[in-house]
Each structure stands twice: as structure tokens, then as C-alpha cells.
Amino acid sequence: MMSRQLLAVLAAATCLGSGAMAQSLLTAETAAPNTTPGISIISLSEAAAKAGVADIQVTSGQTLTNSVQNVAEGKTDIAAAPFILPFLMSRGVGPYAGLGAEAGADLAGNLAVLYTYRVSVQGLMAYDSSNISGWDGLEGKTIYNGPPRGAALTNARLLAKTVSGLEEGTGYTGVQVNWGQAVKTMQDGSADAFILPQAFPDPRVAAALASGNMTLFSMPKDVFDGEAFQKVTGLPGTVAFSMAVADMGYGDGVTIMSEDDTYRGPATVGGDIVNVDMDFDMAKALTAAFIENIEPIYHAKASFMPVTWHGEVDPEVTDMCGANPMKYHPGAVAAWEEAGYTLPDCAK
């Protein structure tokens, strides 16, 4: 933990050395630093320091289920949040069942959004040596499907059931380890296949290739277009995603299995969130710093960042309306509108 914090402080200090003195000290929590949520928060810390808005101390490698609750309780200023988590909190179910419905709804009401992005795309992958043929070959297998608690595990179980009809414990054996051990778990043979969130190209896949070639399996088109999957994409924070295989960014060592050269799957969308009590001017300044630096900072951080939907405001992509209990922070609304964007009324 200390090493992550030290790296974050050093990164912020480097930014401050070349920009205006930050005026406030904020805390932030996010996922692993090589993931979209991790890079997003780290990029915000650089953008905020560059603009002289704040010095953000980032703690990465966190389970976002806990991070979202910390923001709701006022213990942390900013966190990355797949939008399924505030929804589950608002109902007091899933990883927030211990809160109960009333307390969960009260806490979820404390959350607001600065900006959104695509967190990941859930999908099935396996080493070629495992002889996994695809979604129809998972029965009786052992599948690594995320950390012990969080949105990734919830989404992986739901995807497996939607595509294959199998449930963990009866149809297959699930293996859960924290993100810091993800690549090791992929490489050590403890699982036959993996249902994990991905970017394109994905850093975990790239690292795991040291142990052999891999295949990524698209959702079957008939399932993707079917009624069961439409119900999945009706959940807050989940939208249908498709991308041409040629645009996924992979080279040698990775095969993409698809019926028609298109990769399909459920995209998890979310955003960087704050407590509704954050000062209007601070939320506005943070959002303005983000908007100004989407290309020079965010897109420059990793090869997959330019296609993660940072800067999108269309609710069909952001999922900021409907069952999503969160709205944009009023300060964020002001920043977006001053920058010339139009936010849907249902998200304000």
C-alpha cells in the first residue's frame, strides 16, 4: 500500500514542479494502475496539478466496491466507479447486502459523477494449450473470474450464465484472486479459462502471453442479439459493445474467435465520482481540467485509452440515465456546458 501511495505522491510532485501550485489536497482510490479506471484517476491527478486545482493523492489497486462506499461515507474524495456498484448500493444488495436497503439508498444518494468512460469489456479467454473451444466448452472447467468481491466478479458470473447457461458451483468452478495476482493466476495453471474485464489491447493479456498464445472468444451473435442479453444491458452500467477484430490492437500470439470478424460483449461503463457535498467550484475545476486534458494526458497514457469513451456524454454510451441512481455533480454540469457539451436533462 505504501509503495502505491509513494508513487502517487511522487507523480503529483513531478506535475507540480512543472505547473502551478495546487491549492487543495484530495484523496482518490482506483483500480490497478494499468487499467482504464487506474489510468483515469492517475490522469486526473496530473490534470488537476497541471491546472493548479488540487494535489490528488492516489491509492491504486483497490477493490472499487469498497472505494465507492468510502466516497459515499466521506472518507475518500474521488473514486473510480463502475455504475453497477452505486445501483447495488442503492438497493442494499450484492456486495452491499450488509448495509440493508435503507442505509444503502442513503449512501448512494451521496454520490455524484464528474465524467464517464468505458471501464472494460467482459470476455472469455484461454491459453491455446488449454483446449477450450469457446463458450460451449466451459462445463466442468475451472474459471478465474475476478477478485473475491466486486463488480468484475458479478459481471463475469452473469455473463457466463447468459451465454452458456452455467452457474458457478454447479456448472463450473470459480477461482477468485485480487487483481495484483491476476497475471500470475492466469499463468500458473490454476484455471482452465478466464472471464475477465478487458481493454483493447489488454495489458493483462499482453503480460500473460509470456506463458503461451491465447484466444479471445467473442459472444455468439445470436446470444448478443437475444432477449436474455438485452436484459443484461438493461442493468445500470452495462451496454452492448462491438468492435471490428482488426481494430482491437492485438498482434502475434492472440487469436480472436468470432463468426464475422466482429468482437462482441458487454461493456461495463462507469466514471470518476465524488460526494455530492464536494464544493461546486472544486467539482467544476476538476471536470474542466479533465475536459481540457482528454487528449494530451488521458489518451497519451496507454494504447487503449483513446477508445475508452472519455469525453462522451451520450446516455446511450454513458448510461447516465434510466436505473442509474447517480447524476452529474452540479459543478461538473457547469464545466461540461461551459465547454460546449450538451448533457441530457435526465443526468443533471
Descriptive tags:
globular, about 350 residues, alpha/beta, eleven-stranded mixed beta sheet
Helices, strands, pairings?
Elements lengths: L1 H17 L6 E5 L6 H15 L4 E5 L4 H9 L5 E5 L1 H8 L9 H8 L2 E17 L14 E3 L6 H14 L8 E3 L6 H6 L5 E6 L4 H6 L5 E4 L3 H4 L2 H6 L5 E7 L9 E4 L4 E14 L4 H13 L1 H5 L16 H4 L11 H9 L10
Parallel strand pairs: 1-2, 1-3, 5-6, 5-7, 8-10
Antiparallel strand pairs: 3-11, 4-7, 4-8, 4-11, 9-11
Description:
The two termini are 36 Å apart. The protein is globular and about 55 Å long. The chain has helices at residues 2-18, 36-50, 64-72, 84-91, 101-108, 151-164, 182-187, 203-208, 221-224, 227-232, 280-292, 294-298, 315-318, 330-338, and strands at residues 25-29, 55-59, 78-82, 111-127, 142-144, 173-175, 193-198, 214-217, 238-244, 254-257, 262-275. It is 36% helix and 21% strand. The protein contains 14 helices and 11 strands. Strands 1, 2, 3, 4, 5, 6, 7, 8, 9, 10 and 11 form an 11-stranded mixed β-sheet that branches. Strand 5 (142-144), helix 6 and strand 6 (173-175) form a beta-alpha-beta unit. Residues 1-22 have low confidence and may be disordered. By secondary structure, it is an alpha/beta fold.
How much of the residues is beta strand, in percent?
15-25%
Q: What's the end-to-end separation, in Å?
A: 36 Å
Q: How large is the radius of gyration?
A: 20 Å
Number of strands: 11
User: What class would the helix/strand composition place it in?
Assistant: alpha/beta
Mean pLDDT: 92
Give the fraction of residues assigned to helices.
25-40%
Low-pLDDT regions: 1-22
Shape: globular
Task: Specify the biggest β-sheet.
Answer: 11 strands, mixed
The H-and-E topology, N to C, reads as HEHEHEHHEEHEHEHEHHEEEHHHH
Number of helices: 14
**Oligomerization:** single chain
